[in-house]
Amino acid sequence: MHPITELAKPVKLLIMDVDGVLTDGRIFITASGEELKAFNTLDGHGLKMLQSTGVQLAIITGRAAPGVAHRARGLGIDHYYEGVHDKRAVFAELLQKTGLDASQCAYIGDDVVDLPVMSRVGFAVAVPDAPSFVRQHAHFVTGCGGGNGAVRELCELILQAQGNYERLMAAYLA
């Protein structure tokens, strides 16, 4: 079995950053100060498929944005943390809350602020436009960019490693 598959197989919790991962990293700010972000629907469906197999989902983001909270609720994200300055502390809280071990967690990030969690999980993932220092500390770098299918790619990788991909895809052809 491929080493990446071995790292993805035990994942029971996928933790994600938002800006640069679930989005392309750009933030549009209206004249009234409202932030606008674009999310990829392929990522969203990948998350729903992964969640249907029992994998929990979490977002840990440094920013607090109403649009992100709305998207997280719409996707049924199990654990949502916004405005976080210490991602390591939130990760410890998540482990305690879920009863999981760090080896059962995957994290996808795009910047150095994600390294405190990436360096502790069993499966650390970066997007291709992350700084080289971050990519060097990832077990896997997605082919797709943040906001452009990176999360879907990761979801499918986990689904394949856990033997759920073919069954889920077959349902769409029935």
Notes on the protein architecture:
This protein is an alpha/beta fold. It has helices at residues 3-8, 41-52, 66-75, 87-98, 115-118, 132-136, 150-161, 165-173; strands spanning 13-16, 28-29, 35-36, 56-60, 79-81, 105-109, 123-126, 140-141. Helix 2 runs parallel beside helix 7.
Describe the structure concisely for a colleague.
The protein has 174 residues and is of the alpha/beta class.
Helices and strands in order:
Elements: H1 3-8, E1 13-16, E2 28-29, E3 35-36, H2 41-52, E4 56-60, H3 66-75, E5 79-81, H4 87-98, E6 105-109, H5 115-118, E7 123-126, H6 132-136, E8 140-141, H7 150-161, H8 165-173
Helix pairs in contact: 2-7
Features of the shown structure:
174 residues; alpha/beta; 8 strands; 40% helix; 16% strand; KdsC family phosphatase
Principal-axes shape call: globular
Instruction: Give the N-to-C terminal Cα separation.
Output: 29 Å
Tally the helices: what do you get? 8
Q: What is the CA-based Rg, rounded? A: 15 Å
Largest beta-sheet characterization? 6 strands, parallel
Subunit structure: Homotetramer.
Keywords: Hydrolase, Magnesium, Metal-binding
InterPro entries: CMP-NeuNAc_synthase (IPR050793), HAD-like_sf (IPR036412), HAD-SF_hydro_IIIA (IPR006549), HAD_sf (IPR023214), KdsC_fam (IPR010023)
Family: Belongs to the KdsC family.
